[in-house]
Each structure stands twice: as C-alpha cells, then as structure tokens.
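Subgroup meeting minutes
Present: P.N., E.W., G.H.
Scribe: E.W.

1. P.N. recapped why we're keeping a running log of single-chain structure predictions: easier to compare across weeks, and new members can see raw inputs and outputs side by side.
2. G.H. added today's entry (336 aa).
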Amino acid sequence: MHEILTDYPLDACNSFGFHARSRYAVEICSEADLVSALADPQLRNLPRRLLGGGSNIVLSADFDGVTLLMRSAGRRLVEAREDAWIVEAAAGETWHDFVRWTLAQGYPGLENLALIPGTVGAAPVQNIGAYGIELQDRFESLRAFDIETGEFVAFGGDDCAFAYRDSVFKHHPGRYVVTGVRFRLPRPWQPVLTYPDIAAIFANATDASPQAVFDEVVAVRGRKLPDPAVIGNAGSFFQNPIVAAAKHEALKADYPKLGGYPQPDGQVKLSAAWLVEQSGFKGIRLGHVGVYDRHALILVNHGGGSAAEITTLATRIKDGVLEKFGVQLVEEPVFL
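Output recorded in log:
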C-alpha cells in the first residue's frame, strides 16, 4: 500500500532547485502503488501530477494537490535475438545509471545518450536525443497506465508518434503514466560517430568501442554542461529550431558562420545555442538566474532563483533571437 506524505518539499525533486511544496505526495515504487494511489478516495478528486527526476521541468509554485513521485526500480534483459538485445527498465530508474548498466552487461547501443539527466520513464515522453541518436532509434515498446480508461496499455514506436523532442505523451499531458520501457539494441554493434565532437576523437570506427564512446560522451557533456547538483539547471532550455531551406539560405547570406543540419524533409535544423550566443545572452545574469557562461543553451539558478525569474529571462531571450534572426525559439522544459 502507498503512504500519503503531507506538505512535501519538492526542492530536491527538480533540477533547478526551486523552492516548492506539494500538499500531498506519494512515492510510486510499483504499478500496484500507482493503481492504489489513483484510486485512493482521499486523493481521487485532487489535482495530480507526476515527477520523475525533475530534470526537464520548471516548478512555478506550491501545488495544492498530490504529486506522484516515480521511484520504481528494475532492469533486465528480456531477450537476446540474433539482430538485437531487448532490454527493459522500470520508469523510475535513473537514465544514466541504466545506460551504464547496459554497457556493463554487454548490451551496447545507448552510449551516445549517456549522462542525460532524468528517468527512464520520462525519456520517451521527450524523445531524448544527443550526439547523433534519439531515443526513437533504440525504442522497442513501453507500458503505461491510461488514467482515462483505468487500464494498462502497450505502445509501439508508431503509437508514440515520436518527433524531434516530441511524442504523443506531450500532447495528452496527465493521461498516461509510463511504468516501463523496452529498448532494441542492434547487433552487431556499430558506433554512431556523426557528431563532430565525438568523431574527432576516433580516427576511424574501428578505434571506437562502446565504452570509449560512452567515456567520450560523458567527457564532452561534462565540459559543456553544469552538474545540477552544483548549479541548478534543466539542461538544454530551448529546442534547436527547424526552418525552411530558403530561410536558412537567407540567414546564411547575412551570417556566414551560421551552421545548419539538413533534415530528411528538406528543412534545416539550426543551433539554438549559436542563435542565443550571437544575440548577446551568453553569460548574462538576471537576478538570481542567468545563462551559463560555458553554454548559451543552459539557463541556471545561481541560488535563490524562482520560476518567475527563469520565465522572464527565457522570454527576453526568445524576443531577442526573434528580433535578430526572425527565428522563434521553443522551450524544452515543461512548466508546472
């Protein structure tokens, strides 16, 4: 049975470290805990929300409802096929720990996604990605509880409607609670070295091992991104915008150093960090919050900051980039 916690502090449950409390909280350590918490008459009619690692959210205020804290654990090899390893993890598992476990067990394929903060359950919601791989590239299926129907449902890749930092779950907030995710890790393993920072380390693919790629990804992220335990942040705050090819060409004419990553549909993905830096925001400070001085895409809490300050800063950045480049930035974190 679940335990109802009252006046629960959420400071340690969000990577920005913003101060917030929840009227009630329940730690979800199993699917049974989830079902019983949702059916609890004391909680049934209250507003509710789910928190995993709290690494992709902005907590705006105290919450007069119940916060479900995903704490489930477990990871296993489901099947060893000739063409893939199928591995599974519970939603509450820390993503980076799970990636490290897969390598230790001899199931490579997730190493490019190392050190991304958050939990396994949140990963498909955001369709996390880094260094040439998105979660959808390694996705097999997931299990979720449908709050509207009161039943557990299975999602395949097509059901999830994955797109750049997007999925069906983002379009139905609060309806589905992911409880477990399965991944398909291709055999034989082949390194993904499409990202320049990673490719530059290895003379050719034969020099790369799963552990070597993992170690390099961790090193690169460590050099660029601040540890939330040291300085509060939610990782990349803005999505890399995708624009029409004609728009990219026009911008390139005015800004020759502007990069671009061609997309399968003919559009071009731009670097949000480059746009923010060129607009003059890298390293600025606004009250208790600011833009990280080593990476323009990271908004940070220097201590004592609030969601209101982050919102004001983010709006100022979006307005500045729009005015200079005519490109609209979109936030990655969810505002709660």
